[in-house]
Amino acid sequence: MVTKVHQPQLGDNKGSVGKLAEYLDKENEGKEAQDKDLFFNHSADQVDKRQAIDAIDQNKKNLGRNDAKFYILTINKTQDELKNLIAKKIGREGVNDFSELTKKEQMMLVDELKSYSRDVMDIYAKNFNRANINSGADLVYFAKVETIREYKHDEKLVKENKEITAKISALQHQICDEKSGSNDAEKCKDIEQRIKDMQATYHRQGEAIIKTGLKKGGLQLHVHVVVSRNDKNQKIKLSPFSKSRGGFQKLNGKDVMQGFNRDVFRQSTANHFNEKYQYKSKTNEKHPYKSNDKYENRKSQNTLGVNPVVFIGANKVAVKVKRKVINKIKKEALQGHFSEELSAVRNAKNVISLIKSPQRTLINMAKNKLLGILKGSILEI
Questions:
Q1: Where do the structural domains in the chain lie, given as residue ranges?
Q2: What are the residues facing 249 on neighbouring strands?
Q3: What is the C-alpha separation between 267 and 2, in angstroms, rounded?
Q4: 227-236 tens-digit pLDDT
Q5: What is the arrangement of strands in the sheet containing 139-146, beginning at the earlier edge strand?
Q6: Residue 227 and residue 140: Cα distance in Å, rounded?
Q7: How far apart are CA 107 and CA 92, in angstroms?
Q8: Which residues, including other chains, have CB under 8 Å from residue 221's CB and lie 6 or more apart?
């Protein structure tokens, strides 16, 4: 299970959330009112699209025009995790597609995902380590359970199929009229065979060639959450991209790291799922998405799978050591121990300046020399 925090790909997050809400409501297109699955939040299961938009758009006190107004979380589950969830909560084994469930069972599964999503938002709130931000009830958010995924243009299988199509198209232009001669006819047959061989290499889902917009098979349930930058009282700004600066503060009598730790958040949500649904994660488990987000792809500070509590404690020690080293270097520099090194750095800077802007550098050097002479004369007087 992976919970991804990311910036919106549709528009930006500095204005209204309207376009994003419209996009997330896409599965309701063409459905009768009684069949539509609306948004939900921490306290309500059925939130109208207009209410969801207004809740975020109106929760922007003290946020500037260029400030982020909201962020997105995506709760993604593997096929095995979803099968385990169906077995535990619905009592059915071997379900491979959402359509195999009855209407009642589908509603039960969606309701369970809503329950888990609220737990995720409790973890999200606590991960800020801020006083008065204790649960999802202190946030403003709306969310949507989706049951369908489609292949996107930037996915590996889609891109590889596009390359195959381009090669086939190039070969088709080489096919000549067999009537033009025996040699040409043989050449045409060879090209036609190459085209058939290439067509056999297409990535397929059943008989269908995988391309942009094709619905993915299997269990594809996932949850999108849109959460306001402000807390519900519009007094505290909360950004999941606010990196921990290594500083600590007291919260409930304990030292906690300031800022939002995405590594700890992801691990905490995964652990909670495993505990809540008695699921044992597999090391080779394939997740249903690959992150393209620069924040998600940034090299993790906790890549060794260290326990988050131990990891934070180690960071605290590292910060103290870093400060001591910096202070030591400053002290040594002030006492003149690095005078030769500092002189070399200054000389190097002068050489670089001369190369980039010789006239200005020479004028500045002359001014500095003259000021030095004048200061010396004044001191002598």
A1: 2-149+215-301, 156-209, 320-380
A2: 256
A3: 8
A4: 999 999 999 9
A5: 2-6, 70-76, 222-231, 139-146
A6: 6
A7: 14
A8: 77, 82, 98, 109, 110, 113, 145, 146, 147
Strand 139-146 and strand 222-231: the pairing is antiparallel
pLDDT digit string (tens) for 68-84? 999 999 999 999 999 99
Give the rounded distance of the alpha carbon of 376 from its chain centre.
Answer: 60
Per-residue buried b or exposed e for 314-353, using 16+ beta carbons within 10 Å of the residue's own CB: ebeeeeeeeeeeeeeeeeeeeeeeeeeeeeeeeeeeeeee
Residue 183 has pLDDT above 70, yes or no: no
Residue type, 9: Q
H or E element that contains 351 = helix 339-356
pLDDT, one tens digit per residue, over 229-260 is 999 999 999 999 886 555 666 656 666 666 78
Enter the DSSP assignment of 47. Answer: B
Is residue 308 within 8 Å of residue 315, measured between CB atoms? no
DSSP state of 13: S
Q: For the whole model, what pTM was predicted?
A: 0.69
Q: At what angle do helices 103-126 and 79-89 cross, to 10 degrees?
A: 110
Check pLDDT > 50 for residue 48.
yes
What does pLDDT average to over the chain? 81
